[in-house]
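Person: I keep going back and forth on a fold encoding question. Show me how you would write down a chain together with its backbone fold. Please set it down just below, with no commentary around it:
Helper:
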Amino acid sequence: MRDGFIALVQEYFPTADYIAGVATAGIPHGAILADHLNLPFIYVRSKPKEHGLNNTIEGDLKHGSRVLVVEDTISTGGSSLKAVADLRAAGAEVIGMVAIYKYGFEETKQRFEDEGVVLKTLTNYDFLIRTAIADGYISKDEIETLNAWRANPKEWK
């Protein structure tokens, strides 16, 4: 994964000044990436700590810095885009986000577009399904069910 993230950074986000992990699953991946790229690492909590400085952002973020956000999985994008909003509120320029996996829900794609956040992932739902079919893990008949879920996961039964 580290090498995949490095390739994404080099191709799409070479101007990053900071790497920011989204708590909690984005933290280890972001820390490893930042260490390899020799960039400062920060992380973003979903809510402020109840004691101390009440920060959502942990680390020494310089105003105006270009920040690349790291996540593990993108489903609805809610927590990821909240982290982006918190970073922007702190004066960061969020240049994009990398993640291991995304489901590719249309609603999520639109949310990222609306927020002006470029998202690049190592893999996605479409690739997972194609691979599962090719490996015989699922049948072509099961695709309809999987595609119906993906089209409307909130109301799928």
